[in-house]
User: Which sequence fits this backbone?
């Protein structure tokens, strides 16, 4: 068995197969990095700026996670997937597979907006979050030389969970502590675009998030998509421009190019349109899990959300079905039941909906921190769980 990607989906699949197979089933886990990145925590750019190059709080070494298991880790960049010959090409060789789980995650989707890939930051990868943290810290250092009462302007593009958490984090970070006593708090703008703010989340959570953002000084601009990005300014659909010192792209995700080009049915943003068992149509023994997969709930008709919580849940079913393909027993369909959602809203604050109960403030922030820590601990113990 081969698993491509060691994110929330891939690592959970590999650990699930090892556990269910009582470590008698050899598994090869392939990723370009030797660590599992806690991607849902990469909005914490204030903490990243204070930590400098020390990213240990946001990563879990795969060697430590996989020791004494049947999972073999190989570091490499996936270049192509050949279904006919059951082979994966890497930058340093090739690997044959009997069964395969494609868990290569997602990348930023720029929708063809000129200048967006080159001139904006993103926090979808650790390297991107670290670059943004360094640039924010340096911008704050320079802010002491700004004339009058001028402050740096940061524009966050995208009103989903990532954009919301990031805007609140930047607005509430003590930049004087991070960058020096002369640093001036930035003016933070959140551009939500044509999609509603926090679309799909419970109304009470949205209202609480909007209130908190207003209280911490985030200016929200609703209903305008970005048409271009230039140095120090962003053009929006009404023909106006927004000046900024930094622009951060949180406007959406798509499947990686290697996944978008596979000869299989695709859904929105190049994701693989999988069947109820997460198996790729027409390719027995190959499964797509997490952000690369598009699966519609047969009961509601809605698409299973592209969240870490859903990826971990899918991974449990995928691990069971990978073993089922090996042993010849029937595959089982995936059934998703969301346990809740939590959105960080700056230092010591959050809003969430857990079991249909809305919580906010410091209790929600504490719960989010506990959930994040429990996940990291569960990964090291060999069974990814948590994240609600």
Assistant:
């Amino acid at each position: 068995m081969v698993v491509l990607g060691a994110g929330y989906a891939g690592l959970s699949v590999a650990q699930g197969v090892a556990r269910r197979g009582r470590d008698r089933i050899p598994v090869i886990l392939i990723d370009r990095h030797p660590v599992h990145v806690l991607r849902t925590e990469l909005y914490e750019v204030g903490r990243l700026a204070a930590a400098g190059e020390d990213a240990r709080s946001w990563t879990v070494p795969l060697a430590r996670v996989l020791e004494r298991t049947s999972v073999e880790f190989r570091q490499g960049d996936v270049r192509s997937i050949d279904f006919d010959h059951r082979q994966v090409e890497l930058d340093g060789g090739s690997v044959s597979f009997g069964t395969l789980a494609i868990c290569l995650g997602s990348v930023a989707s720029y929708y063809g907006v000129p200048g967006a890939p080159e001139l904006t930051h993103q926090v979808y990868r650790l390297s991107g979050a670290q670059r943004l943290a360094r640039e924010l810290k340096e911008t704050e250092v320079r802010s002491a030389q700004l004339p009058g009462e001028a402050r740096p302007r940061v524009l966050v593009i995208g009103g989903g969970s990532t954009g919301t958490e990031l805007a609140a984090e930047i607005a509430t970070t003590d930049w004087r502590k991070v960058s020096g006593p002369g640093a001036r708090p930035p003016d933070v703008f959140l551009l939500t675009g044509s999609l509603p703010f926090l679309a799909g989340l419970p109304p009470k959570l949205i209202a609480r998030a909007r209130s908190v953002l207003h209280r911490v000084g985030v200016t929200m601009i609703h209903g305008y998509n970005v048409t271009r990005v230039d140095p120090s300014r962003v053009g929006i659909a009404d023909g106006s421009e927004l000046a900024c010192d930094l622009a951060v792209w949180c406007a959406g995700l798509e499947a990686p190019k290697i996944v978008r080009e596979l000869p299989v049915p695709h859904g929105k943003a190049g994701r693989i349109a999988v069947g109820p068992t997460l198996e790729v149509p027409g390719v027995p023994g190959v499964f797509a899990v997490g952000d690369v997969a598009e699966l519609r709930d047969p009961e509601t008709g809605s698409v299973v959300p592209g969240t870490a919580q859903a990826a971990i849940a899918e991974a449990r079913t995928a691990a069971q079905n990978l073993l089922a393909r090996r042993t010849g027993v029937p595959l089982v369909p995936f059934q998703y039941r969301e346990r809740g959602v939590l959105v960080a809203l700056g230092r010591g604050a959050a809003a969430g909906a857990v079991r249909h109960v809305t919580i906010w403030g410091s209790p929600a922030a504490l719960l989010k921190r506990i959930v994040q820590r429990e996940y990291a601990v569960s990964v090291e113990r060999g069974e990814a769980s948590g994240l609600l």
